[in-house]
């Protein structure tokens, strides 16, 4: 039970931001780790707005830091200052090699043939997401993908298979949160020293803070809309959350991903992200090259 003052603060936060973060079921707040009224109010409000426990906790701590830094509690001021989340200051002490701030259309593709086809069609950023348990086949497919983009300006990221990406001389690698967490300190240093760019998937505030700790080359944020491509650990984030994430992480190149069709490009780009990743919009298209041209035109507005 909240005291009257804390309850009023929580209600103010919730009512002022309900429209921005509409569409999520209220959740039970996690146990507070401090009794500060700003923290407790924000923890309850963010839980009522549908943020899962570790994101509500992350936001509550940011709200407390913001109030301490500014010397006042402002329910209308949603936290968006990197300092309040403990993000690295720029230039970052720990960081991977940079990549373009706007990666443009980002095609996530199942094999090297698709990678080459979309690179030749002019897609600026491509990712090989090759699923196999065969180590030899994986290494071969990564090498084929690197060869497939040769002579094109396409930037090639390899999903998951970072050792093979290093060996083949890819432009970069993309890792999910679990893959990032599984790296030892030595493996992370090997990857950083290789010169490969690193992209990291995130699904909310806590994961963005975790990703920032390693200073990736770009941050992927999603899933923005419902997608059937794979089982998602979190609910679709929606445009309101995407805009808040983009504001917080504006010093990074950002990629929006998850269920995004061409009709939604304008509203997704309006959040401030510089790249949109697509899968089905290309691989399921009757004319993939024509679809790529249309999507790239939509990226240009």
From TrEMBL:
One GO cellular component term, please give it. cytoplasm
Cite the InterPro entries for this sequence.
Answer: Aldolase_TIM (IPR013785), ThiamineP_synth_sf (IPR036206), ThiamineP_synth_TenI (IPR022998), TMP_synthase (IPR034291)
Q: Where does 2-[(2R,5Z)-2-carboxy-4-methylthiazol-5(2H)-ylidene]ethyl phosphate bind?
A: 259
- Give cofactor(s), names only: Mg(2+)
Q: Tell me which residues bind Mg(2+).
A: 160, 179
As to how many cofactors bind and how, the note says: Binds 1 Mg(2+) ion per subunit.
Task: Provide the Thiamine phosphate synthase/TenI domain boundaries.
Answer: 111-282
Which parts of the sequence bind 4-amino-2-methyl-5-(diphosphooxymethyl)pyrimidine? Answer: 127-131, 159, 201, 230
Q: Does the keyword Metal-binding apply?
A: yes
A molecular function annotated in GO for this UniProt entry is: magnesium ion binding
Keyword Transferase assigned? yes
Q: Which Gene3D superfamilies match?
A: Aldolase class I
UniProt GO BP: thiamine biosynthetic process; thiamine diphosphate biosynthetic process
The protein's matches in Pfam families, at most eight in alphabetical order, are given as: TMP-TENI (PF02581)
The enzyme's first-digit EC class, named in words, is transferase
Record's keyword terms, sorted? Magnesium, Metal-binding, Thiamine biosynthesis, Transferase
What pathway does the annotation place this protein in?
Answer: Cofactor biosynthesis; thiamine diphosphate biosynthesis; thiamine phosphate from 4-amino-2-methyl-5-diphosphomethylpyrimidine and 4-methyl-5-(2-phosphoethyl)-thiazole: step 1/1
Q: What does the record give as the reaction this protein catalyses? A: 2-(2-carboxy-4-methylthiazol-5-yl)ethyl phosphate + 4-amino-2-methyl-5-(diphosphooxymethyl)pyrimidine + 2 H(+) = thiamine phosphate + CO2 + diphosphate; 4-methyl-5-(2-phosphooxyethyl)-thiazole + 4-amino-2-methyl-5-(diphosphooxymethyl)pyrimidine + H(+) = thiamine phosphate + diphosphate; 2-[(2R,5Z)-2-carboxy-4-methylthiazol-5(2H)-ylidene]ethyl phosphate + 4-amino-2-methyl-5-(diphosphooxymethyl)pyrimidine + 2 H(+) = thiamine phosphate + CO2 + diphosphate
Q: What is its EC number?
A: 2.5.1.3
Q: What family is this protein classified in? A: Belongs to the thiamine-phosphate synthase family.
The role this protein plays is: Condenses 4-methyl-5-(beta-hydroxyethyl)thiazole monophosphate (THZ-P) and 2-methyl-4-amino-5-hydroxymethyl pyrimidine pyrophosphate (HMP-PP) to form thiamine monophosphate (TMP).
Protein name (database record): Thiamine-phosphate synthase
UniProt organism field:
Acidovorax temperans
Q: What is the lineage of its organism?
A: Bacteria, Pseudomonadati, Pseudomonadota, Betaproteobacteria, Burkholderiales
